[in-house]
Every structure is written in structure tokens, then in C-alpha cells.
Amino acid sequence: MMLFKLGWRNLWRQKRRTLITAFAIALALFLSLFMRSMQEGAYQNNIDNSARFATGLLQLQHPDFSDSQSIEDILPGSDEFIAAAKSLDHISFILPRIESFALAAAGDKSKGVAVIGAVPSLEQPYSGIGDKVVAGELLKDVDEGVMIGQGLADWLKVELGDELVLYGQGYRGQTAAGLYPIKAIVRFPLPQLDKRLVYLPLSSAQQLFSTGEQVTAWVLHTDEIAQVARVKQQLIQAYAGQAVNVRDWLQMAPQMAQQIAMDKAGGVFMMYLLYGIVGFGLFATILMMTLERQREFAVMLATGLQRVKLLQLIVIESSLIALLGMLMGLALAIPLIGYFYFNPIELTGDTAQVMLDMGWEPIVPMSVSMQLAVDQLLVVSLLMLICLLYPLWRAYHLDVVSGLKGDQHG
Amino acid sequence: MSIAINKLTKTYHADSEFPVHAVQNVDLEINSGEFVAVMGPSGSGKTTLLNLIGGIDTPSSGSVMIDGKDIAELNERQLIGFRRDHVGFIFQDYSLLPVLTALENVEFVMQLQGLSSAECRRRATELLTKVGLAAQMHKVPAKLSGGQQQRVAVARALAPRPRFVMADEPTANLDAQSTAELLDIMQQLNSEEGTTFIFSTHDQRVIKRAKRVIVFEDGQLKQDQCQ
Ligand SMILES: Nc1ncnc2c1ncn2[C@@H]1O[C@H](COP(=O)(O)OP(=O)(O)O)[C@@H](O)[C@H]1O
Ligand SMILES: [Mg+2]
After folding, report:
1. Is the pLDDT of residue A236 over 60?
2. pLDDT of A1 above 80
3. N or C terminus of chain B with fewer C-beta within 10 Å?
4. What is the pLDDT of residues B56-83, one digit of tens each?
């Protein structure tokens, strides 16, 4: 207790130096935490947007499907099969889908297309597919019609109400063929999708490809992106012994995963750079704090302070500076991060337009995460420990006789 | 409670071309309650002798026996404990902790002994009153004169009830008036508390007040007389 009192008062012998050092820590912590919160918020937003747009965060597939993309490699579509997934926590969406290929023809035009069979009433709250309809209306769950991309409609020169022939290969080599009225035209912001997408109810797709009640994928979404890894493990356990492959968004969208990893590495590098600079300042302060008091320390040792206690005093003083910096940093960061959490930064210009085209809100949300804050506090603590090593070593080897003589280098 | 010094020698840079024989072959006995002045010119080895007796420095050869026990046999931890409990130190430049008040400076060394805060407060107040600083107890050293600071240092040295007090040129920075006051106080405490005082000096006024004077020259004991 008395060491605390002594340490605390010692800090204010060099008021300005202490405050500048603490403020440097505070600034580094604030900038790092703010940047990381913004990064993580943006990543989560991107991941969530893309997942809803395409693959979902997790999928159950047949083990061979990821390589073959074949309608032969499919899973049961029954309630019984998916019951195990439904019983898990933190899963917010479970969507059965068929994804395959076919030849689409109308009049004398034809083109290879991607066929997606899904349940519109389940998909709408997830991906908002209905919002992309530019002509006609969203399909019903049981519907004889199809929806096609605007680009494809232009290429085939078809309009709402025209008929489309789909022709391809179904389950077990059966012929897949059907005639469908065009009930809606949708606009996808990605041209490669817009030009080749045919969307029909799951039941129609199962009929077309003769799969019976089976699907090519069960698309899953977790409450939070951070839960993906844990839920994936639970799914793997739940479906152990069955021919089921659990894939996460990292595997299904490796490019995005890589992009995020690189961006994150950049942020973390900046963060360490910042802390590195601040570290030099902290080191200088702690070193000065001990070197300029060699005589005082020698007097304390002479008058009966055990050396461990002296080292403790130095640790206490440094910790108090670091703590002061942490508190100041958090005091700065928390209100600002909180503000931007409730009032996300709105994007403008080209980036905003791209997001708007995708049907996404052009904002960068803040991630509010205890973990991010704890990470920063750990980094500061570690930094302080590193800065303490040499000063502590000096104090440990301080010779009382030369210290009393004021010989700093004894 | 006696100090017995046998063939005490301290050589600095012993292995170098120019070894410094700071203390050479000194035999000396100091008994409980003595008031001893060590005099000699600058560089004669006074500080080194006091450091050796106080367990701050270690002899090159010979021994310092306190109550028949050689302090060279103590490890660092025990040595610090020995200094804490049995030796009071007074330095030329007072060496008080600048962030603590006079009272807290005196209490601090007792807290190191593990005494209760009530006991620390009681004794610190008593000692500071004895040295005439009852009204200045709550001031930090910077707010006190040199003479007052040295009186706080005397109170601090005596607070843990040490067997002896080592004072290395305690009056060197003080004017005549403060020197006289400090000597009065040291003498009074010497008789009241029975604490042994050993101080180095080259101030004639101080030497006159000592009961025993030891003269040092080139690290050797030249004279030892009671007066
Ligand atoms: N740590 C040391 N290293 C080398 N020489 C020292 C050291 N301490 C003291 N000396 C030398 O020992 C001699 C005695 O010094 P000291 O005991 O301080 O004398 P005094 O206190 O009488 O002035 C001097 O020559 C001094 O230079
Ligand atoms: Mg000296």
C-alpha cells in the first residue's frame, strides 16, 4: 500500500513527462482500437452482404459436390435430415437449394445458364431477392414460372410472359427438360450473373432434375459471423458418419477471405508500428525514471527497502503510467466508437454506388467488440513489460555504494 | 551491543595497475552508547569505513563483527534487513524522499519493519517533536530548510530504534547555527535513547563535541582518543 502511494506521487514529480507518455499510449490505443473496430465492422458487413447475396455463411453439401458441381452429388432435402442442424443454437436461416446448369432456349436463341432452385418465401427475408425484380413479381413457393436475369432476357430477346425451354442432364443420367413461362425479370448488379441466371421454385427444380426430395445444398446463416467456426464444428459433429461436407464462407469465397486477411494484416501492421513508436517513448520515460533516481534508490536500499520491493516500486510506477494511458485511451475511444456504431459512417462516390447497385446499404458499420478492446489492453501491457526489462535489470544490479556516491554507471 | 573491527581492509580496483587502498588494516572497537567522530582529510577513507561498518560495503579482508557476529556472512536480503533494523543512516545531503512529508519519511522506514501504522505514527510524531519539528511535520522536504531536513533525517535514522547511527559528514551542508542545533539534538538522543553515534567530519566545531575522536589518514587509523 505504501509503495502505491509512493509510486503514485513519484509520477507527478515529472508531471509533464508522465502526462505526455500516458497521452501517447492513449492516442495509440484510441487510434488502433478505432481503426480495428472500423475494419472488423466493414469485414462483417461485407461477409454478411456477400453471404446473403450468394453462398450463405455455411453450407451442407455432398462431400464430392465442391469438386464435381454435379447434380449426382446431392443431399436429402427432408425435414428429418435437417433436424440435426435445426436443433443447434445461433442458426438464423436454413435454406434448401438446388444449384445446377442447363441450356436455356427461346425462339432461335439458346445459352448455357445457371439454374437456382430455391424457396422464394424463405429466400426473400434472407437475400431480398424480391427487391431485385424489375418486371413481373416474385415467384410463389409453388409456381410453374421462372425468373431470369435482365441480361439473359436481353440476350434471348424474351419478355415477361414468353416461354423458356430448359434442357439439361438430371439425376442418375435422366434427361432434364421443361417449358416455363417467364414470370419475373430480376436485375443483378454482377453482369456475369445477370446474363446467365434462371431462378425457379425448389419444387420445380427438383422435378426438372428428377432429384426427388433431394437438394444440392443446405444454406445456413448464423446470428453472428463470429459464431461461424463454432457452429461449423457442431455441424461436423452432428453429421458425423453421414456423407455430408460442411463448408464455411472462407472455403466458398476464398478470394474474399484472402482479401480480408491481407487488409487486416495491413491494419495490424499499422497498429504495431504505432505502438512501436509509442514504445520508444514509454521506454525512454521508464528508463529516465529509474536512471535519474539511482542515488535515491541506493538510499532506499541502504535504509532497509528490500530489493524486490524496489523492483515492485518501479513496476508500480510504470503500470500506473500505462493504466493512465489505457483509461485515457478508452475514455477517448468508447464514446466515439459508440457514436459511429449508432451513426455508421456513410460512404459516398463510386464505392457507395457499387454497394447501392448490389442492393446494399452504403455504410461502414463499427464493430463493438470487447475482444478488440481487450487485445489493445494486452498489447499495451506487453509493451510496458518489454519496456521494463532493462530498467528493472539496472535496478536489480544497482550497487548501493556507487549509487550513494551518485556514480550512475557503477 | 558492540562493534569489533579486525584488520579491516578495503581495496578498490585491486586487480588493476592502480589499486586504491581506501581502508587499510584497521582494528577498532566501539561500544554501545558511544558518540564517536571519525575525522580526516577528504579521501582518507571515512566514508568507506562507515559504509563497511553499516553493512553497505563489503570488506576486501578483515571483518566487522556486530555482537560477535561477522556481517560478511549475511546475504543481501539479510544485510538489508540488518540495516533496516539495526543501523540508521544520515547523509550529507539529507536524502529524504522528496514526495513524502517529514512525517511520512520517518514513518516509511518503520513501515518497512512491519510496525503498525498507529505505532509508526506515534513514534514518528514523538521523534519529530524531539527534533523541534512539531509544526513542520506535514511539509515535504522542499518546503524545509537544510537544517530542518537534516533534523528529519536524524528522526528517520532513529525511528526504527537502531543499535547505531552512521552519519557521513552530517553538517557539511549546514551553517553554524544549524550545525549547533543538530549536534545538540544528536547528543540529546544519544543520551536519551542510548543509541551509538558514529559520524565522520572535518569540521572542528563538531569534533569538539565528540566524546571520542578517531583520526584517519590514507585509509589508516592514526589516532584514537577520548576527550
Ligand atoms: N567506489 C570506489 N571506487 C574506487 N575508488 C573509491 C571508491 N570509493 C572510494 N574510493 C577511493 O577510496 C578513497 C577513500 O574514499 P572515501 O572513503 O570516500 O574518503 P572520505 O570519505 O574520507 O573522503 C579515495 O581515494 C577514493 O577515491
Ligand atoms: Mg566521504
Report:
1. yes
2. no
3. C
4. 999 999 999 998 899 999 999 999 999 9
Query: Which residue, among B181, B96, B174, has the nearest Cα to B140 in the 3D structure?
Result: B96
Q: Which residues 30-69 of B are in CB contact (within 8 Å) with A? A: 51, 54, 56-57
Condensed to tens digits (0 to 9), the pLDDT of residues A87-144 reads 999 999 999 999 999 999 998 999 999 999 999 999 999 999 999 999 999 999 999 9
Q: Report the C-alpha gap between A29 and A42 in whole angstroms.
A: 20
Chain A contact residues (CB < 8 Å to B): 2, 6, 9-10, 12-13, 295-296, 299-307, 309, 400-401, 404
**Amino acid identity, residue B162?**
P
**Which residues does chain B have within 8 Å of residue A400's beta carbon, measured at their own beta carbons?**
56-57
Q: Whose Cα sits closest to atom 16 in ligand 1?
A: B45
Q: How confident is the model at residue A360 (pLDDT cuts 50, 70, 90)?
A: confident
What separation in angstroms does the CA of A319 have from each of A11, A279, A324, A382? 11, 14, 8, 11
Nearest to A299 among B51, B80, B91 (CB): B91
| Substitution target from A2, A294, A297, A303 for chain B, most B beta carbons within 10 A | A303
The complex's ipTM works out to: 0.95
Give the start-to-end residue ranges of the domains of chain B.
Answer: 3-226
Q: What is the CATH number of domain B3-226?
A: 3.40.50.300
CB nearest to B99's CB, from A6, A302, A304 = A6
Q: What is the pTM of this model?
A: 0.86
Decide if pLDDT at B183 tops 80: yes
Give the separation between CA B62 and CA B65, rounded to whole angstroms: 10
Cell of A42: 466493414
**Is the CB of residue B105 below 6 angstroms from any atom belonging to ligand 1?**
no
Which whole-number Å values give the CA distances from B101 to A295, B105, B144, in the listed order?
19, 6, 10
pLDDT at res. A410: 37
Instruction: Name the residue with the closest Cα to ligand 1, atom 20.
Output: B43
Length of chain B as a residue count: 227
